[in-house]
Amino acid sequence: MIVGLTKNQQIPTKKMNRNSGRALREKVPFSAQSVFHPVDRDPVAIIESQNYFRIPELIPLRHQKMTGSPFAFFRGTALLMAHDLSCQTQSGIHVTICGDAHIGNFGFYASPERRLIFDLNDFDEAAPGPWEWDLKRLITSIILCAHELGFDTKNTREAVLQTAAFYRKGLDLMSDMTSLERYFILGDEELFLKSFSDSSREEFEKIIKKAKKRTSNQVISKMTETDPFGRRTFIENPPITTHLDAKLIDEVESYFRQYLKTVRPDIEILLSQHVLTDIARRIVGVGSIGTRCYLLVLTCEDESHLVLQIKQANDSAITKYSQKNFTTPNTMTHGLGNGYRVVSHQQILQAASDPFLGYFSAAEGMDFYVRQFRDMKGTVDLSELDFETFKQYVINCGVALARAHVQSPFANWINGYLGDGDGFDHAAVNWCFDYSKQVYRDYETYRKSLPRN
What we know:
The protein is an alpha+beta fold. It has one domain (about 15-215, about 315-450). Helix content is about 45%, strand content about 15%. It has 19 helices and twelve strands. The strands form four sheets. It has a six-stranded antiparallel β-sheet, sandwiched between helices.
């Protein structure tokens, strides 16, 4: 919503906004941001509170995945961390945030122009909220992942300090651009590769090459077969890929028509040239295990295929624990459900988004969003990276997060609050190292709470 000015009211300037952010340091000093305040709560109860919207028979698989390692556990506990962050010191500045900006939720994907982009790529928790929550979740995830990879504490601290510094510097650099220049920034593959040393660049060139092959055609060739009627259908691979009963197929087909009303006209007419030939349930991720996720095969008259994914959208962990204030972006007032929330906030945060994004609401109050499945998506196998390559990669995650945050109206308040020094960098890193110890304790508590086989 565009807000008009009253007569004789001065237009807020960049300098004024930065000064307002700078003034917050008196009320919320960096030293306060560095202290993790232990929270008296039951981590298992908070985690289990989300099981009401999960498919019961898949919950044991979620337990199995989350007990794989402390980092795997962390990936599935966005709600728990949001609870804990709400009990910590905050600057009070809100922007549109990812809500689950851990290191595994960055990667490559195709822009509508078929350019490969590096950016955030998961928005199930996205909503307006405190900017620190994203940065602290990213830094904590790097600490946990680095420990899992065997990197020592000294090197890990160096990597996360650099990540925080490049977030701060990236925010400052992009804030000096015009609003349109910020809006059109694209972190494409060429810009991404230039940030790496020669030795590291080769590894990411392989990842990029592999990502470009991950298309609907690859899904069709690897995950489907031709039935007796000549239609492409998914290969049964329980529990990962399973077919639905006839009643549920009819429901999904009905909701798909509802989805078509939410896409752009050019996408609607493109999809009208396709016939839906099969639907299957698909298990994805760690935090999403147990939620409803379906894959659809659509076939055109020219015998080409398109694979779409329908994914359940639940209440955001951020909106549960974040308290609104005058800086909170006005993006949650439309009343169109969580499918709309995920889609709209993805479009705000990403440099370029999937043109097939859409949403619908189903029975029993469940919301869903729709996107392409594996459209040149490339995730980085962090276990394959040496420390220097790992460090350069996480720095890029920090810059991508800054690009996402700088799109919001009060980004220059963050700029003023952070300033030119590295005081906040050290404060955030100290907090995250202390919080990572809490994650290890919660992981053990969670693991011991589960029934033994």
